[in-house]
Design goal:
alpha/beta; five-stranded parallel beta sheet; three-stranded parallel beta sheet; 10 strands; about 45% helix; binds NADP nicotinamide-adenine-dinucleotide phosphate
Length: about 280
């Protein structure tokens, strides 16, 4: 089965919109999302445009604060503090990557953890790893929703995650542990990737290497989630060799049209949850 991320994302957005419509009716308030965009890096411009469009469609008050790439770290932190104190703002997102004069950690740490819709603040990271309530990074959250759609009870399943980034691999592992999976994380220094991957009832590839995962790396009837976005010529491909692996997997996400659309839908979900929590 090919998992249709676009369709799942649309269903999630519809659900979010319904809830926001009700909240608006009852309390005359809607969630607000502010995105800070620094510089003119083309992919960031596209991501932010999509985020803004999707937020507006579900009824979130969306605002983009744009700065030139020379902006100082202090200026950005000043703006974040202002947004932290603004009651109309439920979520703050600083689009990465940042220019070299701006320290990513300092920026993330400046965001109120209750408005940290990306789930990157150390308090959210810590809460997630201690199994407490946390805002979870959007991409792994989207992956979990897609996995659970196909396999609602993950208890006892063996999940293999390829990649250990703070953005994807590590939070994905925490989420699957919370679901009572046995989790293996593999990375660039792992000795025998294929043997490890073959243990997975669930395989999540978040690597950034085109077509790394071959069909003889996955076992029959596994669920394969491909986070990778790699440009090969003029095509976008994932970390999984889709055409061969789809013959073996029980369910698999395509690239594009799999995890990507869920990432933005989960940003909207996180914004709504932050609004409700506050
Ligand atoms: P990252 O920070 O570069 O991390 C990549 C991870 O993969 C690292 O842990 C690295 O190991 C591991 N790795 C690299 N080469 C490997 C190899 N040959 N064998 C095994 N492991 C290897 O990347 P990321 O930010 O997690 O992103 C991963 C991919 O997801 C990228 O293609 C990115 O564009 C994509 N992405 C997609 C979405 C979406 O919405 N679909 C969102 C975010 C990112 P070491 O730790 O040992 O270096």
């Amino acid at each position: 089965m090919i998992i249709d991320g676009k369709k799942e994302a649309q269903l999630l957005r519809d659900k979010i919109k319904k809830e926001i419509d009700l909240i608006k009716l009852k309390f005359n308030k809607v969630p607000g999302l502010t995105v800070i965009l620094i510089g003119d890096f083309a992919p960031s411009q596209i991501y932010v445009k999509n985020k803004e469009k999707n937020a507006k469609e579900v009824g979130i008050n969306s605002e983009v604060v744009r700065y030139p790439k020379e902006i100082s770290e202090q200026e950005v932190i000043k703006k974040i503090r202002e947004l932290n104190d603004n009651d109309a703002v439920s979520g703050i997102l600083v689009q990465l990557p940042l220019p070299p004069q701006i320290n990513k950690e300092k920026i993330i740490n400046a965001i109120d953890p209750l408005k940290d819709v990306d789930g990157f603040h150390p308090i959210n990271v810590g809460n997630l790893s201690s199994g407490h309530n946390a805002t979870v990074p959007c991409t792994p959250l989207g992956c979990l929703l897609l996995i659970k759609k196909n396999e609602p009870n993950l208890s006892g399943k063996h999940a293999v995650i390829i990649g250990r980034s703070n953005l994807n691999g590590k939070p994905m592992a925490q989420l699957l542990l919370k679901e009572n999976c046995t989790v293996t994380i593999v990375h660039s220094k792992t000795k025998d990737l294929k043997t490890e991957c073959l243990k997975g009832d669930i395989v999540v590839a978040a690597v950034g290497v085109a077509n790394l995962v071959k069909s003889d790396w996955v076992k029959e009837n596994s669920i394969v989630i491909d986070v990778g976005i790699n440009k090969v010529g003029d095509k976008i491909v994932g970390d999984v060799e889709f055409d061969t692996v789809k013959e073996k997997a029980k369910a698999i996400t395509p690239v594009p049209g799999g995890v990507g659309p869920m990432t933005i839908a989960c940003l909207l979900k996180n914004t709504l949850e932050c609004f409700k929590d506050r």
